[in-house]
Amino acid sequence: MGRAFVYVILGGGVAAGYAALEFTKKGVSHGELCIISEETVVPYERPALSKGFLLPEAPARLPEFHTCVGANEERLTPKWYKEHGIELVLGTRVKSADVRRKTLLTATGETISYRVLIIATGARALKLEEFGVNGSDAENVCYLRDLTDATRLVNVMQSCPGGNAVVIGGGYIGMECAASLVINKINVAMVFPEAHCMARLFTPKIANYYEEFYKSKGVKFVKGTVLSSFDFNSEGKVTGVNLRDGSHLPADMVVVGIGIRPNTSLFEGQLTLEKGGIKVNGRLQSSNSSVYAVGDVAAFPVKIFGDTRRLEHVDSARKSARHAVAAIMEPDKTGEFDYLPFFYSRVFTLSWQFYGDSAGEVIHFGDFSGTTFGAYFVSKCHLVGSFLEGGTKEEYEAIAKATRLKPSVEDLAELERQGLGFALTV
Ligand code: FAD
Ligand code: NDP
Asked: Strands 342-347, 350-356: parallel, antiparallel or unpaired by DSSP?
C-alpha cells in the first residue's frame, strides 16, 4: 500500500499549519501536499493549551484556535484543507523514514513517498522516569504537550475543586499552569531545582517580581530541590510528593513541566543533528537537500548572533515554516532566514515579551514595584536582548526594533538612566 506526493509535512502542529497556509499562498496544486500527524485534529495554536484552554469561564475550545489565528491570519479548519486539496493523514504516527528512498512508513503500514519533505515533528515532554522518579502513569499526574494532555489536565483539575496541586518545574509550563490552576481555585506549590523561576531567561530581580506576584495569589515556592518520590493511595493515585530535601507536600494532583526533547529519532543516523535538533541551513534545508526541518525540531543559523540555535517557541515555528516553504516554492526569490528570537508569556494580568539573547551584562529599568519594567542585555558593547513587562504595543515594537539593530552601548549608566526611552529613540 502506498501513496506519493510532491510535498509532505511530517507533523501536524503549529509549524505544519503555517507551512500549509504558505504553500497555498505560493500556489500549490490540489493533491500535491500531504500532512501526516499523530494528532487527530488539524493544526492548532499550541500556546492556547496552557492559557485560554484552562480557563474556568468560557474556555477556548477547538475549532476556535486552529492555526493560523495566532498570527491574525486565516483559521484553517478541516474544510479549508479539503477545499485546498491538501491531503490530511491524521491520527497516524510515522514509525520510520528512509531519506535515501524518500519514503515514510506509517504505523498503519502505509508507505508515503515525497519529493520534498518538511520535518515538523516538534518535541515531546520529558518524563519524570528520565530523572529516576516513577509515577507518570498515575491518573492525577499531568503533562502538557497536546490537546489530549490538556483535556486530561482539565478533567483532573475539575475532579479536585479547592484541592492541592504540586507543579514540578519552574519553566514556561510550570509558570503558566500554576497561574491557570490558581484561577481555577486550586492551591498551588511549585517545586524546582533552581534559585528562582524561569532560570534560563529571567534575572533574579525579574524572577523576584513574578514570584512575589504569585505568592500574593497564594502560590507556595519550594526552590533548590527536586522531587524524589510520590506517595500513592490504594487506587494508585498520587496523594503526596516527597522532595529530596526531606520535605513533603500533600497533592490531589501533580503537573509536570521539566522540559522537552525534540522528536528527531526517525532521522538519527540519516541527517546531521546539532543542539539536539536537525541541523538546517539558512533555507531550513537539512544535510539531505530534499529534506527541510522547521519549528522546535530544527537547529538553524541565527544570523544576528552568528550561531546555530534550536528555539522552542511559537513565533520561530511560524516563521521558520513560512521561510522553508518560500525557499522550496520560490528558491530564486528567497534569501537566508534572518530571525530575531522572540519569546513571550501571559500569566494572570501580567504579560511580558523578550527579544534577542539573554547574554552579557544586564541593565534593569522601570518600576519594579509597579506594572512596567524591563531589562536590556548588553554584550561586547552592543544591545543584544530586551525584556519588557507590561508594555504597550508600540513599546514592544520599539524594543524589538532596537534589539534587531544591535546598537552600540558605551555607557551602561546612561542606558539605565534612559530606560525604555533608549529603545523608543534608537
Ligand atoms: P508542535 O506544535 O509540537 O507539533 C509537532 C507535531 O508533530 C504534533 O502534531 C505531533 O503529534 C506530530 N508528530 C511528532 N512525531 C510524529 C510522528 N512520528 N508521526 C506523526 N506525527 C508526529 N511558545 C510561545 O512562544 N509562546 C507560548 O505562549 C507558548 N505556549 C505553549 C504552551 C504549551 C502548553 C506548549 C506545549 C507549548 C507552548 N509554546 C509556546 C511552544 C510552542 O507551542 C512550540 O514552540 C510550537 O508548537 C512548535 O511547533 P512545531 O510545529 O515545531 O511542533
Ligand atoms: P522549560 O525548559 O521551560 O522548563 C523546565 C523547567 O523544569 C526548568 O526550570 C528546569 O530546570 C526544571 N527541571 C528540570 N528537571 C527537573 C526536575 N527533575 N525537577 C524539577 N524541575 C526540573 O520547559 P517546560 O516543560 O516548562 O516547557 C516545555 C516546552 O513548552 C518548552 O519548549 C517551552 O518553550 C514551551 N512552552 C512555552 C511557553 C511560552 O513560550 N510562553 C509556554 C508553555 C510552554 P533547568 O533549567 O535546571 O533544566
From this structure: antiparallel
Residue 313 Cα to ligand 1 midpoint, Å, equals 9
Q: Cell for 50?
A: 496552557
Q: What does DSSP assign to residue 404?
A: H
Q: Pick the atom of ligand 1 nearest to 49's CA.
A: 34
C-alpha of residue 163 to centroid of ligand 2, in Å = 24
- pLDDT tens across 349-388, in order? 999 999 999 999 999 999 999 999 999 999 999 999 999 9
Look at ligand 2, atom 2, and give the residue with the nearest C-alpha: 259
Query: For position 323, what pLDDT does the model report?
Result: 98
Q: CA-to-CA distance for 8 and 324, rounded, in angstroms?
A: 13
Decide if pLDDT at 95 tops 80.
yes
Contact criterion met (CB below 8 Å) for 383 and 377:
yes
Using the atom order of ligand 1, give the atom closest to the CA of residue 11: 7
CA separation, residue 331 to residues 23, 279, 282, 323 (Å)? 13, 19, 12, 10
Q: 223 burial class (0-12, 13-18, 19+ CB within 10 angstroms)?
A: middle
Q: Which grid coordinates are listed for 353?
A: 515579551
Residue 150: pLDDT over 80: yes
36 lines ligand 1 (CB under 6 A): yes
pLDDT band per the 50, 70, 90 thresholds, residue 56: very high
Instruction: For residue range 201-241, list pLDDT tens digits in order.
Output: 999 999 999 999 999 999 999 999 999 999 999 999 999 99
Q: How far is CA 225 from CA 169, 170, 353, in A?
A: 10, 11, 28
Mutating to test ligand 2, I would choose from 173, 190, 346 the residue with most ligand atoms within 8 A of its C-beta, which is 173
Q: How confident is the model over 159-174, as a mean pLDDT?
A: 98
The arithmetic mean of pLDDT across residues 265-273, rounded, is 98
As a whole number of angstroms, the distance between CA 169 and CA 194 comes to 9
Shortest-distance Cα residue to atom 16 of ligand 2: 258
- Neighbour-count burial for 362-398, b at 16+ CB within 10 Å, e otherwise: bbebbebeeebbbbbbbbeeebbbbbbbbbeeebbeb
Tell me the CA–centroid distance for residue 216 and ligand 1, in Å: 32
Ligand 1 atom closest to the CA of 321, numbered from 1: 51
Pocket test for ligand 2, best of 14, 142, 192 (most atoms within 8 A of CB): 192
| Confidence bin at 423 (pLDDT 50/70/90) | very high
